[in-house]
Structure formats: structure tokens, C-alpha cells
Queue: 4 jobs
Job 1
Amino acid sequence: MSMARFLTLEGIEGAGKSTVGKFVLGWLARQRIPGRLTREPGGTPLAERVRQLVLERGSEPLSPVAETLLMFAARDLHLKNLIRPALERGEWVICDRFTDATRAYQGSGRGVDAGLIETLAGAVQGKLEPDCTLLLDLPPSVGLARARSREAGPADRFEAETLAFFERVRSGYLELARRAPRRFRVIDASAALAAVEARVEAILEDLV
């Protein structure tokens, strides 16, 4: 029986998902557990091209519904060409954002109908859900300050959003965690890195 796990990382900009993802991959390697770190939107060459469409600040407006459809188009490619094959090989998949991000960003943040999002989720991922979701939670003002301090170029469409937008996104994430307490693990991402890693390690040990 495969011991593969599907682990997702969620949170607003500046929450430290990339750092935690690398920590998880390193921890798995030390346990001799095969792991794959990926991200959404993106993860495969074609899905990364869709990512560019979603993030770029072009002259043509992108409606919230169009944005949602692009997210699921990229997700479908990602699932079929990377995530499902890796899980079938017995690898752990650590994904930086997944469908909960669409629920929080496009649903709570943009106001896209939740019914539409769930219909698309059912069509694209079927019954596949993460085994565990690490929600790295922190005040949006802190996360945005972190994200904007490390920007090497112009902000993308999401990084340029208002504080009020990210407050809605954070509230959406916390409501998702409240509704699915067995899957979500909420982590204080404003804490020191060592404390965050200790909490993540304890969760991983429980999953193993």
C-alpha cells in the first residue's frame, strides 16, 4: 500500500510558503521519503505558461471569472501531468497553493460564486483532496511588508492588490480551516522561523 501523501501549503503573500516547502522537502529526504515540491498555478511547462497569463499586469482586464477558469485550466494540467503520476509512484507531493487558494483568493477575495468554484473543483480533481493543508497565517500588513521588501521587479497582479483584498483572503482561509479542522493545520507564520519549523516537523511526524 502506497504511503504517498498530498500536502498543500496555503497563505497570503509573505507567509513563507516557499521556505516551508523547502524545509518539508529536506525533512522528507532525511527520512528517506521521496518527495516532490511544486506550485500553483504552474508546476508543468504548459501550466507555467498559464501562470504568466494569470499574474501579468497587462493592458487587457482579466475578470474574476476568467481568472478562476485559468486557475483550474492550469490545475488540470498540473494534476494530470505531475501530481497524480507522482502520487501513484509513491512520492509525497508538496504543493505551494491548491484549490483552497482559489476558494480564498477568487472566492473570498474577488467574490466569485462558491458554487462555480466547487463545480470546477469536482470536474478537475474529482475526489482527490490534500491529506493535510498547512495554513501559514499572519496579518496581511506583515505579509505584504515581507513580500514587497523582497520584490526584485514590478509587483504582479496579486502583489499589487489592496490590504482590504488580503484581509478578505485571510478571512476566507480561516473560514476554510474552521470548516475542515481535520485537514487544516493553522500555523502562526508571524513567529520566528525556528518555531514555525518545529511546528511543521511535529505535523510531519504525525503524518508519517
Job 2
Amino acid sequence: MNEISFSVVIPAYNAAGSIRATLDSCLNQSLPPLEVIVVDDAGSDESAPIVRGQFGDAVRLITLPRNSGPSAARNVGIAAAKGTFIAFLDSDDCWHPQKLERIHELLLARPEIDFLFHTYTYGKEPAILSEAMFRPRRMPLWKLLLRNPIATPCAVIRRSPELHFDERMRHMEDYELFLRLAAKHDVWRISAPLTRLGRPVLSAGGQSSDRLAMRAGEMQAWIAFARHNPAWYPALPLLFLLGILKHLGKALLRP
């Protein structure tokens, strides 16, 4: 249980403009990962040649024969991974240079943690990370059912057969996975902003920009959760109402 290593899994699709900075943030960690795996999702730009030509053997590049979506790309990366933990990252995001070192220290001290996430920022990472930011707090399952606070590039999860994304889902597939894991494992949160996102959540240009599809995906995740945990079926109507109210509220506030 004390042997901890990190496999970084990065799905990439037409990421030539950002993949260099993303990979630099992985390879320049104060505690290097065991491996960095980039899964090129059959993009049409120079992402794969950049990874192959500029990073060589430092990065394992897997190229899919056809575009399959981020869930399939992540699953391919997970299947190829050898680390005890999977640290997810997207091809337009970057990590704080001490991320893996500080999480490694935390996991050594708390071997019961299988699922950890942290906060994020959109600007520069803070120059000073306070110790208070690294005090883990358990997130109750009911809170995760009400809303998903976990950005996938902020999640570090112990590798196991149950760690896989539902490739049938095109929206909120990460939320479906998080709920499925949270039913069996405690979810822990630290408030250190160790990932810098390349774009705000739900911003234009990404899959998450389709707000109606995101709400539908959220409901699909709740249904899948209840299917695996039937005791939660009575909560579905209230969760659906919550989803509708969230969608209407954001629609009214949208400029």
C-alpha cells in the first residue's frame, strides 16, 4: 500500500496549440510521474508529430485509428497505465510543478485514500501553497449527488478494474464515473489549486458548452447511479427537479 506511482493520462484531439505546455507541466514536476500517456483521438492537426518529435521516449503516444471521444481515449490510456494511481489531465490544462510531490506525500500519510481531487484556477498558480490547503476533507456522497465539483484534470484515482468511463455517454461521463466510484470509496478533497484550466468550465468551444446536453448527461449519470444503487431510486425525482432548476437559473442569468 505504500508503493505509490502516478500514470498521467491525457486525451488529445487537435491540441497542437497547447500540448507542449501541458506536457512540460507533467515532465517538469518536482516528483516525476512514472509515465505520461497521450492518447491522440485521431485528430487532424500536428498534435501527434509534436508529441513524437519534441518529447520522444519521455511520453508514450497512442494514436487511435478513428475519433472515439474523450471517454474512449481515457479508457485506452487507463488500460495501458502501470502506475498505482491515475492522474488525469486534459491537453489544454497545466499542473502546478509540485502537484505530484504534494499528493504523493498526502497519499503516503493517508493510505486509505483511493479517490482524491483538488481545486483549480484559471490564472497563474499561486506562488505559495499553504499547508491548510492540503488537509483532506471527505466529501459526503449526497453532496456529490447535488453537484459535481470535480474537474477531471484535478482527479487522482487509484487504478482498479472499476476505473473506466462509460463510452456511450458524450456529456457528463466523468460525473457518472465519479458517482459510481463514490458509492464504493470515500471521496477526499483538498483546496490546493494544483491545476490551471485552459478554459472555464462550460465555456464556448468544448463539449461542456452545450448546457442542455450537460443537464441531460447529469440526469443520465443519476439514473446510472440509481441502477447500481437501487436504494437511491426514490431520490431521482428530486434530483431531476434540481437539474431542471439549475438549468433554468443559469439560462436566466446568462447574458
Job 3
Amino acid sequence: MSGTASVQHRVDLTDADDRERARRIGRAWIELRRGASAHALRGYIFGDHPLEQGQMDALDLLVRRDRQMRELAGRLRIDASCATRTVDRLVTAGLAERAPSPEDGRVVVVKITGNGRARHAAAASRRGRAMARILAEFDESDRDQLADLLDRFVDSVDRVVGELD
């Protein structure tokens, strides 16, 4: 994340230009999240043994280190029950395992298995190749600007979600 301070700029959805920009950004978000291209890209990244995006997100964290369930849920920005379902699927697939924490046996720690590391490495490699090909269509300056704008966009989404009731 960029860590820059939030600066508010007025967006007037009654203004045709603001409304059109909001529509284009919203449409891009939808297409990135669930469009046919996104589906095909997920199929390429996850290979012959598909993972759900949430499972890959969890493996991205577990490959770095073991995580307590509460920490995993927080890092994934999901509630504990969703994290439990994600970990259940990973355990069933042999990609992760649960163990008691060495510090406190009442606390559950999730660990990636060897099979989980292999599946993650394969998917991460395909994801990297796909990202390199996608970004190759942008020059270095455009990639810098895109990265900065996406960091700001994620920060803004996080702030707004934190303010929602």
C-alpha cells in the first residue's frame, strides 16, 4: 500500500464526465473480478487442479510462514467462519494442515504441506508469467503509474469499507 494520506476530491455523479468515469472503473472492476477473461486467466494460473481464489490467497500467506486462524482471517480480510471454510478445503485437498500452537495448545495454527508448497509454486509461476505478459503492453512509466494508482485505489476501498456501517 502506498501509505499516502487520504485526500478527498469531490465526485459528482450528476456530472456526465464523473458518472462516465465511475461507470468505466466499475465495469473494469467487474470484468477483472468475474469476466470471461478473468475466468480463463484463473484457469491458466491454477492449472489442472483448480484452486479457489481464496485458497490461493491463503496459500500465498502460508507459504511465507505458519499462521494462527485468527491472523489468517485478518490477513485475508474475511471473518473467522470464512477462513475456517477455506482452511477446511485446503486440508481436505492435502494442501494445508492444522496443528496446535507450540505456545498455546488451545490455539490452532495452519501450516502449508509439501503438496501445498508445490501447488502454490506452480500457480505462482504461472501467475508471474501471465502478469509479465499483461504488463508488457505498458511501458515502464505506465507500469509505475498503474501500480501507484492501484495502491491508492486499494487504500481508498479499505478506508471506505472501514467507514461503512
Job 4
Amino acid sequence: MFKNTLVLAGFAMSVALSVPAHGETIDTFSFTDTGWSEYALGVGTLTPSPSTVLNGAFTGVVEPNGFIEQSDLTQFSVQFESPNFSPYSLLQQELTLFSYDTASGGGPSSLDFAGTPGGFTNVCIGAATSLDPNCAFFNQPYLPGTVGTVLLNLGDRDFVSSSAPQITLVSSTFTTPTPEPAPIFLGGIGLAVIAILARRRTPSRRCIRLRGTAGV
């Protein structure tokens, strides 16, 4: 029985110590979109606005499938600037949707996000223009090819973009794996069990002496 117990304790310890520690890939991207036009609601006319620009950046932990989702973000910010309008900023805590596929090689079409800076302005890029209810033009359909919207709620004029943003990988780092506490704890228990069982199995010197003199 002792032998079986010892084998099981040793097996449990080896399993615990063999569990690998996991590192994480953390990527930082910047992006720019300059394909904006003013859009007259109810009229459907577009007026190109070449001086209008949307700049942003985000940092996040890359999941095993290559995606960075909203819960993976550690930093996010967007700045929207256009002549005759005050600049608008969108921060991480104002996001309502975010997703980016790093495995697509930085494909701009995979960047989707939506948010409400200040609680009244809506900024939407990618598939979010259709997936997030805050991106709707007051129930009016988008023009074909629309992949970005900025609703400033300033009357009947807003901004739309027909071009995906240009995305640049700024940095990519892999965190050094650290031993996980659970395997270390289990391994310590395994060693303690082996030590206790071995001590109980070994007879004391007194017992050996008594056994040696029992027949005298």
C-alpha cells in the first residue's frame, strides 16, 4: 500500500510541476482614416472633406485565435478633427463595441469599434456601423460602401467614410512566463506527502535494537 501511495504522490507532483506557465502577446496599433465626407441627412448628398481626419491607437492582449476584443484592451483612444467643428475624442471607457483580428496581417477591414464620447456623439468604424444600434442614421439607410460614421448630433449634417482606416503595428511584445502558483502549491504538497510517508515507513533505531535483542 505504501508503494502505491508513494507512486501516486510522485505522479501528482510531476503533473503539477509539468503544467507550463503562459506568457501573453501584447500588441500596439495606430490607425488613420482620411476618407471622410459630410453627409446631409434626409437629402443623401455627400460633400468630400479632405481636411477631416480620424486618428487613433489601441493596445491589447492577443487571444489564442489572433483577436483583440474589447475585454483585452489595455489602452484605446480616438481623435476626430474636422474644419468648423470642435475636435472629438473617444476613450476606452466610452466604447460599446471593439474587435480586431491581428491574424489577418493587420487587415483594416477587421477593425470594428463603436463608442459614444461625451454620451451624445457616436463614432463607428467597420462592421460596427451596422452591428451597433447607436450608429444608425436615425433609422435612415447608409449609402452603399459606408464603413465609418461620426454622428455629431449637430442638426442634419454628419460624417461618413467609404474607406477603411490605415492600420500600423507600432509594437509587439511577449511577456515572460512566470510560474503559476497552483502548480507550485500542488508540487509542494506532493513533496510533503512523500516525505511524511517515507518517514513513517522507516523504523526507528530503537525498534531495530529491540528487534535485535528480542531472542536473548
